[in-house]
Amino acid sequence: MVGNLLLAAIVAAAVGFWLNYRESKRLRAAGNKPLSMDTAYGLYALLMIGLPSILFVILWLLLNGYVTQSIVMASLPATAFTPGDVGSKSLVLSEIISVSRGQIFGTPEPYKLEAAEYLTRLHSSSVILAWVGVGLIAGLMLVYSRSRAKSGFRARSSVESIITSLMIICSLVAIFTTIGIVFSLVFESIRFFTKVPFWEFLLGTNWEPQIALRADQFGGSGSFGWLPVLLGTIVVTFIAAIFAIPIGIATGIYMKEFASRKARMVLKPILEILAGVPTVVYGFFAILTVAPALRSTAAAIGIGAAPNMALAAGGVMGVMLIPFISSFTDDSLNAVPRGLRDGSLALGATQSETVLKVLFPAAIPGIVGGILLAISRAVGETMIVVMAAGLIATMTINPLDSVTTITVQIVTMLIGDTEFDNPKTLSAFALGLMLFIVTLMLNVLALRIVRKYREMYD
Q: Which of 115, 136, 157 is the last residue of a domain?
């Protein structure tokens, strides 16, 4: 249904494009030379019809289910569910929706059958309303855009204004989304710190958030010191960076400056395959191949190693990050002005000296951006760490021990029976806030490095 609505909006926009384009052609043939190109007149109609119609479809898609279900729930008898009990209300609504779809299990109460029929009628009415809305909006905007297609109309300026406004709106959406994320993290973290002292969380060396969520559950008192989790994140990220940064930079330099055309044709697809491999596949590789090999090697030389270890997770994660750093290095070297390369070679420097002393320093801003992106992905990686490093938060920097990371703990806290008024669940937001702050500090440091080298070569 949504696809048909979108298709109707696109067809109406295409019709408007053709009508305005043809009108511009007619004006030009009649000697009334338009102020813009024929395509600009068509694009104006396309945007004026397509954007409002598609926006209406999106709003209908977002609000249709909520409005119809709210109306149905408001029509139920007072004994249908316990007031204030969100669980029982959701259960009744789910059963009504299942019945409306023909998925009947057992013998539902009569009021549920009536509510299901009512929900079906409301849905049919909302579909008709959506078609009427799309048709009305498309028709009105078609008439309006067609009336503007005159010789004195500056269609190109109008099209540019619409596109500029659209880009501003998209930018504002991104900005307000970021602000919303920050405020949600801060608000829920404040709730957490009202239950757990801030300094206990910040300086604590024990992370055991296993507490009871309900009165009928068994659990401990819980301990929420985040330092072991932070240390595990640093250890895994550091191991990944040790593997990825030198190999990625060296690979990028080789492919850009030293590799032959045939070698580049072979290596480039391999790196692209590595970049497209799902992280769960890397996790299988880490737990089935890398971790046993590391344990066997450690046992052969008399060193103890945990079944799940940071070295396996960090090493495989480093392999995953190599294509990103290599690609950014290649692009950054391509962006260096050719005059620097030619000047260095003209002064008698070898190709290696030119790369290491001229091109690489000039490309550092772009390379640092690639490294920052790779480290951010390493910090946010979850699947590889869960499968290869484990879930135990230990205060250690030994790469052969089992560790956990911030993102793994966030996922763990929000899986299963969750209650958003409990320190165990709220601790995920506190970890998210601290991870946000740490990532922000890394971004500021990277920007300083980039600005320093950019000023040097500008």
A: 157
Rounded-to-integer distance, Cα 176 and Cα 189, Å: 20
**Do 8 and 148 belong together in one domain?**
yes
Q: What is the dihedral of CA 342, 347, 348, 353, to 10 degrees?
A: -70
Q: How far is CA 87 from CA 94, 413, 419, in A?
A: 11, 20, 12
For the whole model, what pTM was predicted?
Answer: 0.71
What is the domain extent for residue 139?
Answer: 2-157
Three-class SS of residue 224? strand
Domain match, 254 and 349 both: yes
How is 393-435 classified by DSSP, letter by letter?
A: ------TTS----HHHHHHHHTSSS--TTSHHHHHHHHHHHHH
Tell me how far the alpha carbon of residue 395 is from its chain's centroid.
30
Q: How many domains does the chain have?
A: 2
Write the CB contacts of 104 (distance below 8 Å, at least 6 apart in sequence).
98
CB neighbour class for 318 (10 Å; exposed up to 12, middle 13-18, buried from 19)? buried
CA-to-CA dists, residue 219 to 118, 209, 212, 424, angstroms:
45, 9, 4, 11
CA angle 104, 105, 106 (to 5 degrees): 115
For residue 3, what is the DSSP state?
A: H
130 part of a folded domain: yes
Same domain, 145 and 266: no
Please report, in tens digits, the pLDDT of each residue of the chain (458 residues total). Answer: 677 888 888 888 888 888 888 878 777 777 777 777 778 888 888 888 888 888 988 888 888 888 888 887 777 776 666 666 666 777 777 777 777 777 666 676 777 777 788 888 888 888 888 888 888 988 888 888 888 777 777 878 888 888 898 899 888 988 999 898 888 888 888 888 888 888 888 888 888 776 554 544 444 556 788 888 888 888 889 999 998 999 999 988 888 888 888 888 888 888 888 878 888 888 888 888 888 888 888 888 888 777 888 888 888 998 888 888 888 888 888 888 888 888 888 888 888 888 888 888 888 878 887 888 888 888 888 788 888 887 777 888 888 888 888 888 888 877 765 566 777 788 888 888 888 888 888 778 777 777 776 655 55
Contact 298, 400 (CB under 8 A): yes
